[in-house]
Amino acid sequence: MVRDAEKQLIRECIDALREGIPGFKSRRPQMEMIAAVANTLSRCRAEDEQAGNGDHLAIVEAGTGTGKSFGALVPALVMAKSRHKRLVVSSSTVALQHQYAEKDAPTLQRLLPLQFSFAVAKGRRRYACTVKLQAEGKQAGQRGLDLAGASTAAAADEAPRRVAVLRDLLVSFDGGRWNGDRDELPIPVVDELWDRITTDRQGCSGSKCPEFSRCPFQAARQRVKEADLVIANHDLVLSAIDMEGASVLPAAQETIYVFDEAHSLAAKAVEHFSARHAIRGAVEWLEGACNAVRDAVLGLRLDEQLIRDSRASSERIERALRELHRCIHGTNGFEEKRARRFKAGPLPAWCQGAGEQILDAGEGLQKTFASLREHVLERAASAGTLATQILSVLGFYVVRLDNLVDTWQLMLAEQPDDVAPIARWIERHDGGGRPGDYLVCASPISGSDKLRKLLWNRASGAVVMSATLTSCGTFDLFLRQSGLGCFERPTFLQVDSPFDFRSQARLVVPAMRAEPTAAEQHTHEVGARLPALVDTLGTLVLFTSARQMRDVYALLPEDLRRITLVQGSMPKGEMLARHRAAVDRLDRSVLFGLSTFAEGVDLPGDYCTHVVIVKLPFSVPDSPLEEARREWVESRGGSPFIEITVPEAAVRLKQGIGRLLRTIHDRGRVTILDRRIVTKRWGGLLMRGMPDFEVVIERSRGLERADSRRTMSFRFHQLVKER
């Protein structure tokens, strides 16, 4: 339970925010959230304590305007300090991470009667390697970054500019005006050049490096190690739990986590724990790997048995890859589709045999690289820059080798009947300058098992929060996907919104003649209706298909096309800036966007007074991963449409609608140009949990006005479609 001293400190923190922030109001919903978070974290676990029933976990749905950042941070800071835990706040977007680092944390640090330090955690490749920076800076003038002798004048002209950039960076770093952080660069640096002066874990010699005391990453790592509050992102947290002990983040057992935008955590986990590799591409880099081993051994005068071992393993892998490519090329699985998925159960013999050879030889090559790395590190102090350069080159190949081995470990893994399977497939890959190549792909269909074992079971405590954790009115989808459904007693809270939805917004379903299933007719009808739907200032039109978005744009009258900004025609940031500038001039402006505009886009006030949903955001289940998910549900007697398709569409619809109201002063409307939401029985499911707008259902002979969203959700399936 929460101790009296902790309660008192939380009250003092809230009072400090009232006094220090003009207009700050501690509303009842936020107070409920603070109490729920504090109570949950009072049950945070000791490092050697089992996860138990999940009473150390809180699941909070809190929308825009509820003050969820402070609602979680204030009690979490108090409880973490009191219980001697580290606090890690994680977000899914760079924008939100910057908000925590540049606004929320400094504000709390300045105002709260609670002393705490904070630091931003980033991956190693966000920092310059001082050894590589010095080497590049000194050599740039002589070799012109390999561009001075280029065959084209443009490439040759680029060389002096890059030389100047490198020298400026070196002078800025040596002079203390730059700390080596890419996000704080004093001058623009292109990706290709940055890759020359940064490194990863495999290419770093750590404490053996002659520049260790000046290393930007090590300095940042020390700040993170000393901080009470660490601001991170979901990808970094997933990497940390996957390589416990080797991460910049504290161990999960000593950490209280706050996950903002937690609705994206499960999808990121699936991506993180998946693997893929190109077949012909692997054959090509294997030759480079052998050459790198040879150069390292000869350059440092190491045991030449390492060269022979690496060559033997590489040749075994190469033979198996070529045989795999030959077998794939001779099958019929790619004539009509770009991918061939292997259903649950054993792989075909030709794939199984090649995979076993690749995995066995790949693990042998990993051991050779590990041994070589140890020898190089032993020579790091005396070899200096040469050792760092060797580690950097070896690291390039180690990453690719690890990915190759990871892929085949997943492909060949045993799959118990009672566990969500691994999706396995091979797809054509004509990119990378290698036409006729294939990708071998493997991915868990769900990240729930990994999250449960590596995160929730280990964490001292955790708060997961987002505006869209529920779907169709329940937490069921999120619980299944996140692994939190395995626990009996987590804390659940849905924070009431401060918005008066009924008076602030209206949801309109026009009497569309065409449904999206009739694609061409629906597109033409959308194009015909849009001119009348564009508001006086800011309108956001959300599409699920880039093709339909372009086709609708082509159908618009010229005057409307002139004020419409289409995703893909320019960077997203520039689109939003132009849109805001137009509205500031009191001009009309229309945004055409896809899924990335339905989430994380903040357009308060007149910047968005109308959101148009062109089509209900159902995913197209044509990817091998989606096919495997559907197959798994069906094998257990379930309905993929009801268990996956509808709930996921409900979340995306909720996110899109959420672009409308961003403050208590906003007003506007949502229009859904997809009649299925009123003609299909599942339409009511989509609307459960949506904001309680006034709802207007247009009929061909007039209007049908539903009293509220709740009334609408139960009446939809009874409505008769009229033409």
From TrEMBL:
Q: What is its EC number?
A: 5.6.2.3
Q: Which reaction does it catalyse?
A: ATP + H2O = ADP + phosphate + H(+)
Q: One of this protein's GO BP terms?
A: DNA repair
Could you cite one Gene Ontology molecular function of this protein? hydrolase activity, acting on acid anhydrides, in phosphorus-containing anhydrides
The coenzyme or cofactor needed here is: [4Fe-4S] cluster
Cofactor: binding comment: Binds 1 [4Fe-4S] cluster.
Sorted keywords for this record are: 4Fe-4S, ATP-binding, DNA-binding, Helicase, Hydrolase, Iron, Iron-sulfur, Isomerase, Metal-binding, Nucleotide-binding
Q: By its UniProt entry, which InterPro entries does this protein fall under?
A: ATP-dep_Helicase_C, DinG/Rad3-like, DinG_proteobact, Helic_SF1/SF2_ATP-bd_DinG/Rad3, P-loop_NTPase, RAD3-like_helicase_DEAD
Q: What does this gene product do?
A: DNA-dependent ATPase and 5'-3' DNA helicase. Unwinds D-loops, R-loops, forked DNA and G-quadruplex DNA.
Name this polypeptide is given: ATP-dependent DNA helicase DinG
Organism listed in the record: Piscinibacter koreensis
What gene makes this protein? dinG
